[in-house]
Amino acid sequence: MQVAPSGYRRRAAQQRNPALGCAREQRDAELVPQIQRVWHANLEVYGADKVWRQMNREDFAVARCTVERLMKRLQLQGVRRGKVVRTTRHDPAIVRPFVRIIWCKKKTLSEPDRGFLSWIGIGFRALSP
Hints:
Layout: H1 5-16, H2 23-41, H3 48-57, H4 64-74, E1 100-105, E2 115-120, E3 124-128
Antiparallel strand pairs: 1-2, 2-3
């Protein structure tokens, strides 16, 4: 990928001297330690919403989306209530047939609820009354 020399030099200068960075980068550099402090002080259970509320209580004027973005970048997340989210994962070693199930409803005046189920790939078709 080609980069213009002026852009390369500007970015290198910003890395050497953070004061040359944009306002967002400078503000993020100020907020990151505060977000980590609030998150650690509350036993690492606060999510972005509660961290944001706590920071506003402590007179840090910050947007909730900024806290969410920085917590995502720092890989900080609060504890979730209820069951842990689990997804079903298939075993790639098992060979499964290609089956597509389509449910079609035929709307007619004589039989409004009649439909049929067709399995494409196997060639089986069943009509349901």
